[in-house]
Design a protein that fits this description.
alpha+beta, 7-stranded mixed sheet, 7 strands, about 20% strand
Length: about 150
């Protein structure tokens, strides 16, 4: 009988511990600097008109930010003449679902303030060096295309 009581208490202890760990992992706090990020409507970006419009939640933006940071790090490692400090850039996100049902995000980054309303209109510039760059992310597959830095 003592062994049965001990076993029940052990099972209750393990179950409670597992539930506590699960609660902690689900309560991950996501902080996104909305002063630096704008999610734009798909229809406003001509390259996405053939795709289905999609929104982004905080976890998807966080994942996209991580993938963007990895791409910037890779770019900086292979570039001796100029590096990108991502903290200095505003970002415009355009999200859509492609023909395969995958979520695609176009990220447009720039370090200079624009005259247009950057939270509603996509910024498109010629040249500008590494102050302007963009990246396409397949969020579903967690793949990124090579960073496209504007010319000098």
């Amino acid at each position: 009988m003592k062994n049965l009581v001990a076993m029940v208490f052990y099972i209750l202890f393990i179950t409670n511990n597992c539930l506590s760990q699960a609660r902690k992992s689900n309560v991950q706090k996501i902080n996104i600097d909305t002063s630096k990020i704008a999610v734009l409507k798909t229809e406003k970006y001509r390259g996405f008109q053939k795709f289905k419009s999609a929104g982004l939640d905080n976890s998807e933006i966080l994942l996209a930010e991580k993938l963007l940071a990895k791409s910037v790090h890779k770019y900086n490692e292979g570039n001796n003449w100029s590096t990108i400090n991502l903290k200095k850039y505003n970002r415009q996100y355009v999200a859509a679902i492609n023909q395969k049902g995958e979520k695609i995000i176009y990220i447009n980054c720039y370090c200079e303030p624009n005259a247009i309303n950057w939270k509603e209109e996509l910024s498109e510039v010629d040249d500008g060096g590494n102050c302007f760059f963009s990246l396409m992310i397949n969020l579903s597959l967690q793949l990124t295309e090579e960073l496209d830095v504007n010319g000098p």
